[in-house]
Design goal:
The protein is α/β, with parallel strands linked by helices. The chain has helices at residues 10-14, 23-34, 47-57, 89-101, 125-134, 161-175, 198-208, 226-231, 243-248, 260-268; strands spanning 5-8, 38-42, 61-68, 73-77, 81-84, 105-109, 115-117, 138-140, 154-158, 179-185, 188-193, 216-220, 234-237, 251-252. InterPro entries: Cof, HAD-like_sf, HAD-SF_hydro_IIB, HAD_sf.
């Protein structure tokens, strides 16, 4: 198969546990780009937390793309937004009430990558990590302090794995009907607009580029990667992926600390 586009999850897929890109992965991605294959970083991260990696890979310009915020925003690397889906301030208020009623920790992110929370007494480490990655500051605001037309791209409930395991069923029961709820990484249970996920975003981008989905490869490791892994021509799970991700994939490569991405691109895409 002649693959034209490779969609890569970042954390625990392209990136090692130290949040770096291995030499092998960089070399193989460079070869793929030279062959005219589009490499699309497809992440739950926001713009700032993705573009620093595209720069290190030499991916730039109007004809290269990133998918951020779990599929809520598709943009080119000239900074133009191709598509975006957001949630209203009405939802934001309902979400914060749910958080306070259940004594949970949270943050939300707007389409500029700004991080907001209303909790001041104690801020959990995952909210601080989110703000640090977003590189846009952390704002302490109640929903009522923000404009009525204020919108967000995702809402995040934070906690360690045991805490999130304990509340997952309750959160799904409350929000599944109207939104997409998914664990995106250790410490992050995220809520997106109903039809937002990495698979839907790839579908939109492939249509824009006039590419058949059979000519797309997608790689990932967690539940939020399953929609794209099941959708494309070749869905690849990392060696460190969750069992459900491996079950949904066509192939399991090495783990993120042993060049899994580079080895899979070599095997399936390079000529």
């Amino acid at each position: 198969m002649d693959y034209k586009l490779i969609a890569l999850d970042m954390d625990d897929t392209l990136l090692t546990s130290e949040k770096s890109i291995s030499k092998k992965n960089k070399e193989v991605i460079k070869k793929a780009l030279e062959q005219g294959i589009k490499i699309v970083l497809c992440s739950g991260r926001t713009h700032n937390a993705v573009v620093k990696y595209t720069k290190s890979l030499g991916i730039s310009g109007k004809d290269q793309y990133i998918i951020t915020n779990g599929g809520a925003i598709i943009e080119n690397l000239a900074g133009e937004i191709i598509a975006q889906k957001t949630m209203t301030n009405k939802f934001y208020r309902e979400f914060v009430k749910f958080i306070k009623d259940n004594d949970l920790q949270y943050n939300v992110v707007d389409n500029q990558g700004n991080t907001y929370t209303s909790q001041r007494n104690w801020i959990d480490k995952y909210t601080i990590m989110q703000a640090y990655e977003n590189d846009n500051g952390l704002y302490f605001k109640e929903p009522d302090q923000l404009p009525n037309d204020f919108e967000i791209v995702k809402a995040i409930i934070n906690g360690d794995e045991a805490q999130l395991d304990q509340i997952s069923e309750m959160v799904h029961k409350r929000f599944d009907q109207d939104y997409f709820v998914v664990r995106t990484g250790v410490g992050f249970l995220e809520i997106f607009p109903k039809d937002v996920n990495k698979g839907e975003a790839i579908k939109v981008l492939a249509k824009k580029l006039n590419l058949d989905l059979s000519s797309v490869i997608a790689m990932g490791d967690r539940d939020n990667d399953i929609p794209m892994i099941k959708l494309v021509g070749k869905g690849i799970a990392m060696g460190n992926a969750l069992p459900d991700v491996k079950a949904a994939s066509d192939y399991v490569t090495e783990d993120n600390n042993h060049d899994g991405v580079g080895l899979a691109i070599e095997k399936f895409a390079l000529k």
